[in-house]
Amino acid sequence: MASPIISPLRRVRPASIRPEPLQPGDNLRGAGLMTLSMIGFTCNDAVIKFVTQDMPLYQAITLRGAFVMLALILLASRTGGLRLRIPPAARAPMTLRLIGEVGSTLLFLNALQRMAIADLTAVMQSLPLVVMLGAALFFGETLGWRRILAVAVGMLGVLIILRPGSGTFGIWSLVALGAMLLVALRDLSTRRFGRDVSSATIAFYAAVLVTLTGLVFSLGQGWVLPDPVQIGLLLLSAAFLTVGYMCAVAAMRVGEIAAVTPFRYTSLLAAIVLGLVIFGEWPDRWTWIGSGLVVGAGIYTIWREAQLGRRR
Questions:
Q1: Radius of gyration of the chain (CA)
Q2: Domain locations in the chain?
Q3: Is the separation of the CB atoms in 171 and 111 below 8 Å?
Q4: Which Gene Ontology CC terms are recorded (predicted)?
Q5: Model confidence over 193-216: pLDDT tens digits?
Q6: pTM for this predicted structure
Q7: Tens digits of per-residue pLDDT, 139-195?
Q8: Is-contact 126 119, C-beta < 8 A?
């Protein structure tokens, strides 16, 4: 079967290289896809947080991972995007990416069990700033004083959310920071892949290793017999995760990066709503203030990058 016009499973060019001119409505479609992606990821987080109230975390990771692998195999079988062979040049970045993927998943989900979903999501909103700083440090990308200042403001926002020295700060706040840094490692490593490695291949290897790691850790935690509701929720979680991934890739292929990327921050709004409705959580004023700084700094850096791009 031929690949659809928008398929996250095909090999594609880097997002900065467009094969054809932007069409009317592309940015709107890209924004919609990015919003749907963020809602999918956040709903996945909420479902896992809910399920692991009664099911051991690593059992949930293992079962969800198995469902995600099945979904990826079925999707790839229709589009031909899954190739298990990794070119020699891609093996080092793949190793780093898998370390970041597995480590961030374990730290994030452990923190998610103990932190309010909106607080944890707010910390993760600083990721684009950290990735930008990492690209400057490790890849030699130019970073002017304005964007360095924006990174500093974003990090200040994270500190306000976590409030070191207060009664709300603890080991899980540090775990959340560790998860964010490992996601940055994952994203920076992804930049080193060539066009001969498909998105489906990258996602499949990540799903396999996360699932196997969850299985190993679950042996020391024990398993419970899941009931039909829990199985259904884990299937729903896997569906949310798969849709989130597919829409995120498609969004960056449809619209301009500067127009689409700000809609990543809709995940914070989704986390606030889900936290209130499902868990009765409501962010305090410090989380609101810190989140405002993080989101504001992130949107400024996107705008600044767009301005610099027009001058080149």
A1: 19
A2: 26-79+87-311
A3: no
A4: membrane
A5: 877 787 778 888 999 999 999 999
A6: 0.85
A7: 888 888 898 999 999 999 999 998 886 666 789 999 999 999 999 999 899 878 877
A8: no
